[in-house]
Amino acid sequence: MSINEWLKSNTYHHSQFRDLKELIEEKERQGLTISLCIPTLNEEATIGKEVIIFRSELMQRYPLLDELAVIDSGSTDKTLEVASAFGADTYLAQDILPDLEQKRGKGENLWKAIYQLHGDIIVYIDADIKNIHPRFVYGLVAPLIYRKEVHYVKAFYDRPLAFSQGVRPSGGGRVTEILIRPLFSLFFPDLTAIIQPLSGEYAVRRSVLQEIPFPIGYGVETSHLLDVYTRWGMSAFAQTDLDQRVHRNQPTRSLGKMAFGILQTFLSRAQSLDILPNLPEVSKTLRQFQVHDQVFEAVEHQILEEERPPMATLPEYQKRLSELEAERSAERLATDASAQSNSR
Amino acid sequence: MHRSNSRYTFEEPRTERSFETILETLPSYQKRVEELTEILLTNLVMIAEIPAPTFHERRRMEFLLERFNEYQLQNCSTDEAGNALGILPGEVGDRNILVVAHMDTVFPSKVDHTVSIQPNYVSGTGIGDDSLGVAAVATLPIILQQLELKLNANLILMSSSRSLGKGDIEGIRFFLNNKGLPISAGICVEGVKLGRLSYASIGMLRGEIVHRVPEEYDWSRFGTGGAIVNMNDVINRILEIPLPRRPRTTIVLNAIEAGASFNTIPTQASLQFEIRSEKGRVVQDLADQIGDIGAEVSSQTGAEVMFNVFSRREPGGIRFSQPLASHARAILKKLGINPRISPSTSELSAFIDREIPAVTIGITDGDHLNEEGIERLEIAPMAKGLAQLIGLILAIDKGYCDEHQ
How far is A37 from chain B (nearest CA, A)? Predict the structure, then answer.
């Protein structure tokens, strides 16, 4: 499949899935469960709105979500209190699988969600979105519900590449356009079709999530794309245009740190895939510079992209999975029994 | 005021005792509505984050129609004025109650419309005026459904367009002038403030004086200080106009715009003002005087002076003792709120013009946070505000607010 063919068949706009009743009917027909995970660190300003909108619209009005959880890295503000006040299940990442060595980072929260949450599909939504809307969830889970061959749905926030006034470039972020897309163009051309590879919103089947490793820092989205691509191919991906996403803009220096972490992850994958087999040991120190009294000073940041193994390899998870399956069987039996007694 | 429709029959006896039953039930409504606050807040966020400056309300209107359709209201539609409408049909359906909140705001689309929710309050641009009112209207069908309340009357839910400023309540006027259904009573819903109660409109005129120096103007002429100086003269003369103590009357100078920069003689100045009085005749007299001042300054300076009227309201309304007014006060008191009676110049005026009994109520408490229009609304009182709205709808529906009670 060419990139343009893939774009045509696997790229959606959220408005295609506005019929939530139909979506939920299909979800229920397949017996799917869906969990929403919002990873947080000091997000008290925006978390309340996210929780209330998703709960009200996608749990109470339309039962698309079966679970809404906030997994926090140790906020010093009232993120968890606000989220809990509006009805989210709240967890501290360090309390999940507490016997493991503690690590801190967004990827850690995402990884632990696989253990903690129940859904067959997990949808991850960042907590800093100012213009939150139910489309952020239904736009991402719908391709998974309607197409069994799709395993991983990524958000993007742009109009289609071609529009009525002609053709214009798509709008990825700065790190995407000056680091990721050039890297993908060099080594994984197919993946350039993912319009916003670093977007923090995606929905994934548990069956895939539990099989892939998780960098705990900046590299988590990049490693997901590489791992899913090499194992399941491009047909496993879809992407959905969610229109605008309003969020905090990061300063260029922060993007430098992000790029450094992503590059570590990329090089590590390129080495293990034998694309760049003979890489030397790389430094984990990023040097940025500042001017102080007309003197240049180096500022060093240690950025180590640690990685969690595939969740399926953990004995604790295997045990939990068995428990979840037993719970589900019991629920199914109870539902069947209830249906039978009603039919009598 | 005379009712236009008075031929209703009700199986239930219209006694004060029956109205008492509604009053007694209010606390339980409030409690149950508290459980539905999430839905109200969600509607509030989704409505308030769609910019809707006056004359550009289309996106907000479309969202509301979508909502009305989802709640399976009938006749979900817009009209030539851009109002959003839906009808919750009544069991009997021989009368119609109109609940309205205006959907436009004074904020341009470029202003950040993000809403933030904290456990005790919600904040954002224009959320009190009147996104919360619109959200309350949009949430009513689900509240009535959850409370298992069925009305005899048809409930017309409306979010009106073109209300503010130069909009001059055009949306509600259009609907009332062209409606196919007789309206028995109206409730105008404003976000703030819980306890406000309006059932009368005062006379009002909003206008503008524009002072323009012609291009071929002779700058050597006496008194040619430019448009700003001349407008200053206009303002001084307006401030010298004696205002009567009775009827109570005010002139407010609302906005002024003039000049460009250094080294440029200002050639244009505009002044927006508002006259309010308990007597319509006084409003007109004052408007005439302001017009005369403009003309006099024009004759003295040779500049063009234009006098534009944007909106006008005639004083009127229902009496203090009219059942709709007295029952609205009783409902507030039952909920532990002291009614604050004040005249209104908003949608209520359109009802008054058509001699339809109507009130304006508020839903919660709130305040302005800054000059940019960010408002903060308290979440806790919202359930009480909605219980008030439900109580009022039920009282109208059961006929307790009819004039002949």
Answer: 19
Contact B132, B379 (CB under 8 A): no
Query: Residue B93's pLDDT is what?
Result: 92
Contacts of A45 in chain B (CB under 8 A): 116
**Encoding tokens for residue B274?**
């508002």
A61 to B39: CB separation less than 8 angstroms, yes or no: yes
Asked if residues A171 and A181 have their Cβ atoms less than 8 Å apart, the reply is: no
Nearest by CB to B45, which of A53, A55, A82? A53
Q: Which of A21, A22, A46, A53 to mutate to test the interface with B (most CBs of B within 10 A)?
A: A53
Per-residue pLDDT band for B212 (boundaries 50, 70, 90) equals confident
Q: What is the pLDDT of residue A194?
A: 94
Quickly state the pLDDT bin for A49 (edges 50, 70, 90).
very high
What ranges do the domains of chain A cover? 3-313
Amino acid letter, B141: P
Tell me the residues of A at the B interface, defined by beta carbons under 8 Å apart: 44-46, 48-49, 52-53, 55-57, 60-61, 81-82, 85-87, 130-133, 246
Bond from prior residue into B279 cis (ω within 30 degrees of 0): no
pLDDT tens-digit readout, A145-172: 999 999 999 999 864 444 444 444 455 6
- The residue type of A110 is L
ipTM: 0.77
Three-state SS for B125?
strand
Both tokens of B364, joined, read 């919660």
A3-313 belongs to which CATH class? alpha beta
Q: Of A109, A300, A301, A118, which Cα lies nearest the Cα of A200?
A: A109
What would the pLDDT profile of B344-388 be if each residue is shown by its tens digit? 888 999 999 899 999 999 999 998 877 777 899 999 999 999 999
CA distances B157 to A71, B19, B82, B328, B396, Å, are: 40, 23, 14, 19, 15
Q: Which CATH fold topology does B203-313 show?
A: Alpha-Beta Plaits (3.30.70)
Hey, is A272 helix, strand or coil? helix
In angstroms, the separation between the Cα of residue B28 and the nearest Cα of chain A is 22
CB pairs under 8 A between A and B: 42
How close, in Å, is residue B191 to chain A by CA atoms? 19
Nearest to A45 among B41, B116, B119 (CB): B116
Nearest to B39 among A56, A82, A131 (CB): A56
| Residue boundaries of the structural domains of chain B | 16-201+315-397, 203-313
Spatial distance between the Cα atoms of B287 and B295, rounded to a whole number of angstroms: 12
Would you say A33 and A260 are in contact if contact means Cβ atoms under 8 Å apart?
A: no
What's the pLDDT score for residue A253? 86
Determine whether domain B16-201+315-397 maps to CATH 3.40.190.10.
no
Any idea how long chain A is? 344
Cα–Cα dist B161/B139, whole Å? 18
Cα–Cα nearest to A106, from A216, A199, A213: A216
* Mean pLDDT in residue range B336-340: 94
Give every strand in the sheet of B154-160, ordered side by side. Answer: B74-78, B84-88, B154-160, B96-102, B185-192, B358-364, B196-198, B340-341
Nearest to A108 by CA among A271, A218, A254, A233: A218
Name the helix (H) or strand (E) containing B78. strand B74-78
Q: DSSP letter string over A301-322?
A: EE----EEPPGGG-HHHHHHHH
SS3 category, A247? coil
**Length of chain B as a residue count:** 405
Note whether A181 and A192 are within 8 A (CB): yes
Instruction: Please give the model's pTM, rounded to 2 decimal places.
Output: 0.82
Structure tokens that stand for B156 in this block: 């017309």
Quick check: B114 and A246 CB within 8 A? yes
> Within chain A, how many helices (H) and strands (E) appear?
12, 14
Nearest CA in chain B to A128: B116
- Whether residues B118 and A82 touch (CB distance < 8 A) is answered with yes
